[in-house]
Amino acid sequence: MAPVKFDDLSKVATSLLNDDFHVSGYVLKTKQKTSWHGASFSSQVDLFDANCATPAKLTWAMPKPFGCNYFNVNKLEMDKAGKFKLETSKDDLFDGFKLEVKSDLAAIDKVVVVKSYTGIKDTQLKVESPALNPMEFTAEATHTRGNATVGLKCTKAVLAGGLPDFGVRFMSGPFFGSLMTSKNVGAFALNASYVATPDVKVALGCNATKKDGLGAANVAVVCRGLYKVKACNDGSLSVSLKHVVTKGFTLLGGLKYSGKGVTYGCQLSID
């Protein structure tokens, strides 16, 4: 199995720290699978928005668009600002190779091509660039060896002597840790998590730079994947509660206390 992408090296811990903290606003999310060649339709509506009567994001996913199985439409989306996002892919051109094309459906120079290759054991290679300007590329490589995964990510700045971003993660039993560096090894992100019991997970994360020292730091405790508490070094405290009313009907609520006061929010998901 191919290793994770470079940006997902720290995801085991960061998902515990960041996901499912809905602490502002009210949202209704729905997802409906159809019998039309496996297509699905998703919507997200921000309720009680004073600036827009019906602020919504609408998304289609079509594995076989109009019955065509030559490529997939992974996402056809229109957000509440009226902006579009199209993501398509083709993953069987030859073994281990995947081609993706992304567009905002507004400007031809914004079309992005992504090429991924996983044909080398325990390795993933990926190059992303504008279709009309391939030198503005972002390239990455990740490789897994035993319990560790290492990765490099670079842009054309390396051609002028810049250093690539570097990442490594390690998993062993209940322990997970990752270290990411960027900005010519001038910025660091450390994340870790520990499965204390089958029901309780603990995660921590912090960012630092050579210039300014320690930046954001936070710690979170997750119980049964439903109850979450997070404390940050800026003095804020966030609490989240997820309740599965019945299959396909989920409530997510939370609040955040900080020096600016208390914010809270609620999200209803129907799937």
Key terms for this structure?
271 residues; mainly beta; 19-stranded mixed β-barrel; single chain; Porin
Count of beta strands: 19
pLDDT below 50 for ≥5 consecutive residues: which ranges? none
Number of domains: 1
Order of helices and strands: HEEEEEEEEEEEEEEEEEEE
* Annotated CATH homologous superfamily: Porin
Give the biggest beta sheet: 19 strands, mixed, barrel
pLDDT averaged residue by residue: 94
- Main CATH class: Mainly Beta
What fold name stands as the CATH topology?
Answer: Porin
Q: Roughly how much helix do the residues carry, as a percent range? A: under 10%
Assembly of the depicted chains: single chain
**Backbone CA Rg:** 21 Å
Shape: globular
**SS content category:** mainly beta
The proportion of strand residues reads over 45%
Cα(first) to Cα(last) distance is 29 Å
Number of helices: 1
In CATH, the architecture is Beta Barrel
3D architecture notes:
By secondary structure, this protein is mainly β. It has one domain (6-270): Porin (Beta Barrel), CATH 2.40.160.10. It has one helix at residues 11-18, and strands spanning 25-33, 40-47, 56-62, 72-78, 84-90, 97-103, 112-117, 123-130, 138-145, 148-155, 165-172, 175-182, 187-195, 200-209, 213-223, 227-232, 237-246, 249-258, 261-270. It has a 19-stranded mixed barrel.
SSE blueprint:
Elements lengths: L10 H8 L6 E9 L6 E8 L8 E7 L9 E7 L5 E7 L6 E7 L8 E6 L5 E8 L7 E8 L2 E8 L9 E8 L2 E8 L4 E9 L4 E10 L3 E11 L3 E6 L4 E10 L2 E10 L2 E10 L1
Could you write a compact summary of the structure shown?
With 271 residues, this protein is mostly beta strands. Helices cover 3% and strands 58% of the residues.
